[in-house]
TrEMBL record:
Gene3D superfamilies: P-loop containing nucleotide triphosphate hydrolases
Species for this entry: Gemmiger gallinarum
Entries under SMART domains matching the protein: AAA (SM00382)
One term of GO molecular function: ATP binding
UniProt keyword annotations, A-Z: ATP-binding, Nucleotide-binding, Transport
Domain ABC transporter positions: 10-243
Residue ranges that the Swiss-Prot or TrEMBL entry lists as coiled coil: none
Name used for this protein in its record: ABC transporter ATP-binding protein
CDD domains registered for this protein in UniProt: ABC_NrtD_SsuB_transporters
Length: 263
């Protein structure tokens, strides 16, 4: 299985999450166990409301589980940490800072300041092909460009683990495809551990080494599928018979869970 010989970067150990709501207690996650290996690219799919974002927020340290724990590099996660970077669907850029200064912000958190930070920021902007827009403000950019800035900023923070919650979900199909290609290129060069949530089964296959399928609420891991398609993956990969087999298999599993939600 992909990644099995590598060391465990993040261990999700019997995580349960209960929310107190106006209607009483609601179990969002129950008994989630997963080992994410060093430099592994994991994609996560499942019906709406199955707890994907909740799980990501627990790994990020933004939420504390009701029971169970998450270990990162063997240490219990008790809050946010620099080794874990998050990219959300909404770009979360600082609107009052230019593109370059948004990236500088992440560098400053690492202690890189002044001219050196500016130079480094340009290097990260080049990576996402946005160096020409360094002095623009976020409001002057398209949705796809803003998300590329958010990705450059996430990379500039040099996290060991990238947690991505439907980062391309709000984008048009063409921009999404372009960003998938950019992300794959960057991942192949920089090899970070990635945990990537998506609603899009094709996206889960084109990016991931393993695809985690979550069951309907209360969310747990239903199945993990090895995406045994070699990298580099390109848009032509989508035409291959294996891609289509995997797509049918994963889609079938997700659809069964979707029907559970509707019952
Ligand atoms: N802070 C909260 N308080 C109460 N309930 C919550 C809270 N956060 C999430 N939930 C509930 O927990 C369940 C899981 O939510 P979550 O956002 O993790 O699902 P998801 O799989 O990411 O959904 P989607 O795919 O629609 O984004 C949902 O029923 C949601 O309403």
């Amino acid at each position: 299985m992909a990644g099995e010989t590598r060391s465990v970067k993040v261990k999700i150990d019997n995580v349960k999450m209960i929310f107190n709501t106006r209607k009483g207690q609601m179990t969002a996650l129950n008994g989630v166990n997963l080992d994410i290996h060093e430099n592994e690219f994991i994609t996560v799919v499942g019906p709406s409301g199955c707890g994907k974002s909740t799980l990501l927020n627990i790994i990020a340290g933004l939420l504390q589980p009701s029971s169970g724990e998450v270990l990162c590099n063997g240490q219990k996660v008790e809050g946010v940490g620099r080794e874990r970077g998050v990219v959300f669907q909404q770009y979360a850029l600082f609107p009052w800072l230019t593109v370059k200064k948004n990236v500088c912000f992440a560098l400053e958190m690492r202690g890189i300041k002044g001219a050196e930070a500016e130079k480094e920021a340009m290097r990260y902007l080049q990576m996402v092909d946005l160096e020409k827009f360094a002095d623009h403000y976020p409001k002057e950019l398209s949705g796809g460009m803003k998300q590329r800035v958010a990705i450059a900023r996430a990379y500039a923070a040099e996290p060991e683990i990238l947690l991505m919650d439907e980062p391309f979900g709000a984008l048009d199909a063409q921009t999404r495809t372009q960003l998938q290609t950019d992300l794959l290129n960057t991942w192949e060069k920089k090899q970070k551990t990635c945990f990537f949530i998506t609603h899009d089964v094709e996206e889960a296959i084109i990016l991931g080494q393993r695809c985690v399928i979550m069951s309907a609420r209360p969310g747990r891991i239903k199945k993990i599928i090895d995406i045994d398609i070699p990298y580099p993956r390109t848009q032509e990969t989508r035409m291959s018979p294996r891609f289509n087999e995997l797509k049918n298999e994963i889609w079938g599993e997700v659809y069964k869970e979707y029907l559970e939600v509707r019952k």
